[in-house]
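Q: Predict the bound structure with iron/sulfur cluster.
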Amino acid sequence: MTLQVTRRQFFKLGATGLATSSMAMMGFAPEPAVASVRHFKLTGAKITRSNCTYCSVGCGVLLYSRGDAAINVVDDIYHVEGDPDHPVSRGSLCPKGAGLLDYVKSDSRLRYPQVREAGSNEWKRIGWDEALDRIARHMKDDRDANFEADDDDGNIVNRWTTTGMLAASASTNETAYLTQKVVRSLGMVAFDNQARV
Ligand code: SF4
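A: Predicted complex:
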């Protein structure tokens, strides 16, 4: 049950040294005061819609970032919350999704394509164009070398078993459908989704 106090009483309580957030959790916070602080925190933020990357539920999230929009300035994401307009989750997030800000800020998060050349033990940063070209080249070469049109008994199989694909769990239905079509049309057999990992 929420304890009703006036604004003046609220600030008197604050003078005792209790943190405002702790007081709010205890039910002492007048709702208008808390709403005002929240509004201030998000004022001027750029809001970007996205999906939680953790699992196949694909909950919708709102990413709040701040930057001056100048060239070469990267917006800094400082708040993440559920998207109330998302048809899957309608604003709710599980604890993993609610902690997405730690994921965004993690030093170990992969932020750009990297390659480890054959024989090397070091990862090297490359651009997206180079990464896509290299992937396409490897796929073409491997498929040309290993594609099987029929098996030993003469049955038509049209299969490519030496390369696999792992799809993203946060894909939309449309992206997942197209990924499946592309992969199967190449004859690829080993195809799975990160949602099961
Ligand atoms: S918020 Fe939780 S349930 Fe939703 S996609 Fe992320 S991990 Fe899955």
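A: Strands lie at 46-51, 60-66, 76-82, 114-115, 124-125, 148-150, 156-159, 165-167, 191-193.
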